[in-house]
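User: Hi! I'm working on a homework problem where we have to compare a predicted structure to a textbook description. Could you give me the structure for the chain below?
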Amino acid sequence: MRTIHNLFFTVVGRGKANALLKKAKECGATGGTILLGQGTITSKFLDFLGVTETHKEILIISASNELDAKLHKTISESFDFSKRNKGIAFSVPFKQWELDQSDHSHNIKKDDDRFSHCCIFTIVDKGRSKDCIAAARSAGARGGTVVRGHGAGVPTDFYFPLLIEPQKDTVIIITAKDKAPFIREKIFSDLELDKPGNGIIFTLPVGRTSGLFEHRSQERKGGA
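Assistant: Happy to help. Predicted structure tokens:
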């Protein structure tokens, strides 16, 4: 029986996920699920031209701790995640996490040193993802990935019950742990998610990341 400790996510340009899955199988993965999505571009020049989205693929793999570490190392090196716009990867623990019951707006303990980032999921009606991304950026997020709902459930080995109905947008945002509460609250407020039917939002801890922009910025500063 396979031991599952994490869900490994990687987000890359359209058409690259199959190559990543092949490399992942060489590392020991037994399979994966590929979703189609759209990434958002933060360039002011491209925003001016009206080019604000890029086609993306999201590959999801269930993994043990050992496989998860190997996937981050192998895929990051093989597909140049250290370079801009090559892709990112992150891992979400496949288990119940200890929650901070005293903070209802952001229920992950901020002083938990087992993770440095969070993954914010927001599910809204189709077309409202742009409002969600705008709200997140105004609170410090760099962007996100949008997955369109097509009436299908999540992979069978997902560890939380989440059914995405047709005509829904799911916005996935990876951010540093200290920024997550502010981004979540801004999305919740601007999109009025306290009103029935407007959408839902939840936050999951991220145990390991590869290829994030802030990492590359720090590397460039360190090498200057």
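For your comparison, note the following. Helices lie at 17-27, 44-49, 65-78, 129-138, 180-190, 213-223. The first strand starts at residue 6 and ends at 13. Good luck with the assignment!
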